[in-house]
Amino acid sequence: MITSGWKTVSMVDVHGKVTFTLWLCGCNLKCPFCHNWRIAEGQECFTLDMNVLLEELSSSAFLVDYFHVTGGEPLVQWRELSSLFARARGLKPISLNTNLTMVKPLERLLKAELVDHIATDLKAPPEELYGLPFEASRRLWELFLEGLRIVSEYGVPLELRVPVARGLEQWPWVERALREVETDFYVVLNPLVGTPMTSPRDREWCSKHCWPEGEIGFLREKLEEAGVRVYVNHFV
Ligand code: SF4
């Protein structure tokens, strides 16, 4: 299993919770705003020593709410992830941050009752935010919707994050995705942050679409009108 490391106590990875967070390498998307793109591309990564990780998780368990696994896209390594979760079961509830497009591996993990919480980004419009050609992005969006249906079917609590972009029409996509969610959930609006605070994969894209302004208030208003619990993360 390939990782870029872990943090024993993090307060920023799941809204309102303290987590022990592990980053796994590799990803099936190429999001232009991604600031973890080195991890997504497998740079700066090493082989995980599962015994060492589990010892550290065990010693920090009393401090945290979740063992949170993020990336990259953790489901790229779903077989190894499944073994890790099986061994970590009982130490702490498990939270998985996934882009929800790898639906078969997702369903296997949920069926095996290895995941207690899911966090995902609602990246829309997909052809802008997935960083892939139009047809592929639209197919991945359909898989994302299926991912939401699967999470709902298994009744796993969901943190639905919206990376808020400047100058893109996102609400119709958010509205569409919400129709698939039938589990306990809330939305976190994450304004896309560009340089100099982060180092996004595609600086040119980010110069057009990072640092949103009125879009945050607009989405918040729409979500609240729809009766959705919503939180807004700020730039700093
Ligand atoms: S933002 Fe997430 S899903 Fe997108 S490329 Fe980066 S790690 Fe992958």
Textual characterization of the structure:
By secondary structure, the chain is an alpha/beta fold. The chain has one domain (about 1-230): Alpha-Beta Barrel (TIM Barrel), CATH 3.20.20. Helix content is about 35%, strand content about 20%. The protein is built from nine helices and nine strands. The chain has helices at about 35-40, 50-60, 80-90, 105-110, 125-130, 135-155, 170-180, 205-210, 215-225; strands at about 1-10, 20-25, 45, 65-70, 95, 115-120, 160-165, 185-190, 230. A nine-stranded mixed beta sheet has the order 3-1-2-4-5-6-7-8-9, covered by helices on one side. Strand 4, helix 3 (about 80-90) and strand 5 form a beta-alpha-beta unit. Helix 4 (about 105-110) packs parallel to helix 6. The longest helix is centred in the middle third of the chain and has 20 residues, at about 135-155. The chain is globular and about 45 Å long. The model has no long low-confidence stretch (mean pLDDT about 95). Bound molecules: iron/sulfur cluster (SF4). Iron/sulfur cluster (SF4) binds near residues 36 and 72.
